[in-house]
C-alpha cells in the first residue's frame, strides 16, 4: 500500500526512520531478502508495537492468495504472507511466516523467468519440503 500512495523517496524516508536504510532497490522494488526482513520485523514486533504487529499478521493470514507457498502446507497451518507479482518481468514472490505446530519460521521464495503455473508448482514443492523438514525436526 505504501508504494501505491508514496513516491520512492518518501518510502525510503520511512524506512530510514525505522532503521532500514537502503531498504528498496534503486528502482523501488523489494528483493526477496527485504521481504524476509519485513516479515521478521513483524514477527518480532521490532519496528511497531506488538499489538499492531499482531493485527497486521492477522490481516496477512487472511490473504485470499493460497496458490504459492501456502499450497505446500497442511490445510490447518496458519500462514501470514504477502505476495508480489510483476507480470512484465515474469517475477513471482511469496513471503511469510509459517506457524508450524512446534515452531514458526519465515519462508520467502522468488521465482523469475517462469510462467505463473510453473512458479506455483515450484513454490509449493519448496514449501512442502521445508514444512516437512521443520515439522519432523527433533532437537
From TrEMBL:
Start and end residues of each Beta-lactamase class A catalytic domain: 2-110
Gene3D superfamilies in the record: DD-peptidase/beta-lactamase superfamily (3.40.710.10)
GO molecular function, one term: beta-lactamase activity
Domain of life of the organism encoding this protein: Bacteria
GO biological process: beta-lactam antibiotic catabolic process
InterPro entries linked: Beta-lactam/transpept-like (IPR012338), Beta-lactam_cat (IPR045155)
Listed name of the protein: Beta-lactamase class A catalytic domain-containing protein
